[in-house]
């Protein structure tokens, strides 16, 4: 009897032990995993999560010039933001800017990548040149375009004058300024986009083209039926990155127009900068930053949800 | 197919190459000068007391300032001043705000006049008055108008350094060609309009007048009518609660510009001052307003004779004069005493007549110590370039009042942007009434918000 009872008692005990060991094992695995993740968790916390939390926190306050919080105002910064005509204009310009730059950058880069993908003598030279704008800093490129856009001495207006047309106030006319910034940005982005697309083209299996050749397919047919579908993962990546970049445009605006004329090129990141570091209103600047974060998050999410359906992975 | 492709590609190469080489050249030049600065900074003696001096002087100003710092460093062997260019005043102030109170903060920082209030409020500065008192230094030798701006209730918070006023630059050769008297430049808004018409008539390729959309110039054009920027005596008797100018005073500037835009005698360079100056030098515009600090640059680079005149004012108003523009030097609190004293010694060096004369002649900023005008360098330069003297005369002709003492408030940088936007609206054919009313509303809101943020 006594033996029996001990046996009964022992069985659940060993079961418990077994569960505990399993739990322990899981804990061990978990901490091991965390240990591997630790470096990036620390980096992300310091440079991303903490600033993000801090930005959200700041957006509910008014601040002094040093950025220290002074008065809690709740949602007021957000309310002011959505009722401010300057900010609404800036959102509108930002979306227009994305619309101007993204498709054109990709079409031009794709075109350059397709022609540079041909096997010609000295093709390496052309590829280097086409991707060369990647090596030019935003500042240098902007200074150079600033010269091109000069109202009276800029080559663009001299050219217009030479063919008898009236010079354009590229950076001072409200209807041209955003367009001028878009041209600059497209030019600057071509290098990077071209390089990525060319890389994508190079990795397409040549047997596909060979069999198409045997079937007697023409150049454009192959382009439409083989190249574009096989390139779609790369294209998808490029579209996502270009859109995010367009939303975050800053350097060229700071150098070329400083948001002017009449706020027509005051894109949202520049508006955040001006609010925080010229007007010293870190609260409303943070509110704008939070909104920008949400918009980019939404855009990227939508792209993955709808855009990725059309992507063909090998 | 391939031939066409090859031709196409060559075309693109030419386009890209033409663009690329320019950009690279710029970059190379930039890094070369940066490198040169780095070595000159690094060569200091370690035993010397090092003073870090942040400034915002680019171009000719930077050259003149570096020369002065070098001469100070070689004039004695106890202090080594390292002058570091930190970008525009705005940028330097932003950087300073993020390092204030740490070891990376400089010993001295140069900050523009409208930063005065936010520097005092920041709590990280040492009022210069304490050093003046401790040292028994005499500040009364400084130009009267400068004392008026920088001393608040009899206390100096910062050491005045580079002061300028706005002046009107004009092309004397173009004036002659248009049958205008180059020695009698227009003085009022109306005369500027008339002169502009004459210029355009004589030479259709040249515009008459350019006003950079720059809030500082708007403030100056207000002050020149005797108008206040902010109420409560420009913020000098109490914290301002709204704008200080009347509708008539504020609108007169917009209407003046609008009339010239309609006459097609106005050249629009937007907010870009560099483009305006290069347009002037290229003979695209005959008159423009700008800080006198550029006068040396403009005179040296113009292929024609440059005239400098007083800032214009509306016909029905007396000329009230101008507000001190420019910047002053702030001593940063919390540094070791030896370092502060070394920095103070450097500040005193900058005030000496010899250095101020050199500075005035090298840039066009006026000498804050009037004794400098008796220095031989200044006398010679005034003889050679009488235009430099106009700045001095204009300042001395200024009647001291709250309007010409200048406004004090921490939101002025934002206010400037608001006025710039309004001016640009008019340049682009917008309605004066709309632009003006929007600007005034925004200006008042900005004042309210700034007061709210201080928790008052």
TrEMBL record, chain A:
GO biological process, alphabetically ordered: transmembrane transport
Localization per Swiss-Prot or TrEMBL: Cell membrane
CC terms in the record's Gene Ontology section: plasma membrane
Transmembrane segments: 33-50, 95-116, 128-149, 178-201, 228-247, 285-304
UniProt-listed Pfam families: BPD_transp_1
Matching InterPro entries: ABC_transporter_permease, MetI-like, MetI-like_sf
Annotated keywords: Cell membrane, Membrane, Transmembrane, Transmembrane helix, Transport
Topology relative to the membrane: Multi-pass membrane protein
Domain ABC transmembrane type-1: 91-303
Protein family according to the UniProt entry: Belongs to the binding-protein-dependent transport system permease family.
Protein name from the UniProt record: Glycerol-3-phosphate ABC transporter permease
Source organism: Oceanobacillus indicireducens
TrEMBL record, chain B:
Keywords: Signal, Transport
Region (Disordered): 27-46
Low complexity bias locations: 27-43
GO cellular component: cell envelope
PROSITE patterns in the cross-refs: PROKAR_LIPOPROTEIN (PS51257)
Secretion signal span: 1-20
Cellular location(s): Cell envelope
SUPFAM superfamilies assigned: Periplasmic binding protein-like II
Pfam families, sorted: SBP_bac_8
Alphabetized PANTHER family for the sequence: ARABINOSE-BINDING PROTEIN-RELATED (PTHR43649), SN-GLYCEROL-3-PHOSPHATE-BINDING PERIPLASMIC PROTEIN UGPB (PTHR43649:SF31)
Family: Belongs to the bacterial solute-binding protein 1 family.
Name the record gives this protein: ABC transporter substrate-binding protein
Species of provenance: Oceanobacillus indicireducens
